[in-house]
């Protein structure tokens, strides 16, 4: 088989399984979000409202964030010009790390090019620091954590999602003297359910394990200063390593960990995913630092975000649509098969100008294919009304069941 034939076969497999992904070309205009323009393949345009963005708080359009980026861009130029060790460290990177360490109440923070890389690089490096380390990983952890754990060559145990009894059983079965780390998330983004942070910290204390918490879907949105669910629940001091993104609620780009100075120093010194890659541009660091700083005091924006999510869930539930509701900001509507999920997504876009991507297997289990809406403070009553009316009409059009789901 030629290389070309092999590529054809690999792509065909995805088409056959209904897993081939096509990009939807969405063009934004500064200050217009969530309104944007969809450019079709033939070049024609359609105005759309974006309902699946992860710029949860609209910070990517915040004038102070944009001003900070412009200022740094004008002062320093486009790129960082190197890895952090070789000319890629600037005052902007250091200021952002200080801002993040302060946010999470940790001694230090360490920037990565994304939260994916932060998870992968940190989790793949930890066994080099703690020989014999056993990592206990929630079954629904993000792909970036799974990849890091898979590649690290150390021992791993997968506990059933949020199942404390199973986690305890696994911890108890291992050598009490072995170094251990429990890796989990504060909000699991597909169902929007919360990780049992306090109970996991209790188990970590009991079994002498470190805790690693991915707060990617919570940073900026939960806690009095936007540090995440651990802050909201008064548990930040019990987490050894916090992972966060600058690309979702912070509205810019990049990722980080926050931890003790020694932990950050060791990861900085050992992790190839930190050492051998160009650092984020200074302008990106400046924008992210401005955003983090603003969100530390802008609790009104957080409250508005939660209110919009509650309103949307209540309205969709009022139509009898199967919503998963764990009380977070994520609004998953379960359609239950890939064909209807795709059809709904296509019709919402073409007929109603509403952009939401279908979420299918393997991202979610078969039979739970869904549309996942992400409201923000800039989705007003007009946008919510339009979405609710469209969902009502399309649900009837596709003759889908109207049955409430329990959380
Ligand atoms: C739980 C979780 N962790 C990490 C990431 C990676 O974040 P980033 O987009 O900054 O790479 C994601 C991305 O969606 C995520 O959902």
TrEMBL record:
SUPFAM superfamilies: PLP-dependent transferases. Signal peptide: none annotated. One of its GO terms (molecular function) is 5-aminolevulinate synthase activity. Its cofactor is pyridoxal 5'-phosphate. It comes from the Bacteria. It is an enzyme of class 2 (transferase). Pathway: Porphyrin-containing compound metabolism; protoporphyrin-IX biosynthesis; 5-aminolevulinate from glycine: step 1/1. Belongs to the class-II pyridoxal-phosphate-dependent aminotransferase family. This is 5-aminolevulinate synthase. It comes from Kangsaoukella pontilimi. The gene is hemA.
